[in-house]
Amino acid sequence: MNTFEEKIGGFLIEFIEKPEEQRVFIAGRNIPQQGKKTEPLTGPQETAAVTLGREWYESHKGVMLLNFHKDPLAGGMRAQVPPKGQLYRAGVEREESFVMTPKGLVSQGKVGAVKGERQSNIERGNSIMVAKALWTGEWIG
Q: What is the pTM of this model?
């Protein structure tokens, strides 16, 4: 997997290449400005950014992207509220353990402690997962 960014047409375009699958993922965002909060792109801005990114990628890599579309789950899942360490809650019989990284849910399973020995430390939004959409296309090798 290859990841790189390019400044194209006033946008910062991120490319994630998977040569083994002959696939590329593209995401656009505003170029961060010193001392200013970065606002997310509007729908038309996002379409313009990824279109510029697609054209740049095709011309610089010498490929033609086929089946280019927005995949709502391509960027994976992340917690709505970033977790602080390992999260747990009281389950029906035993506690359930959620092992989470700052980027999202990794695994879940029962642990040995019986319910009621400790309180849950899951905050509002920790267990709510948000999908990140990316634009994707593939080429024929």
A: 0.67
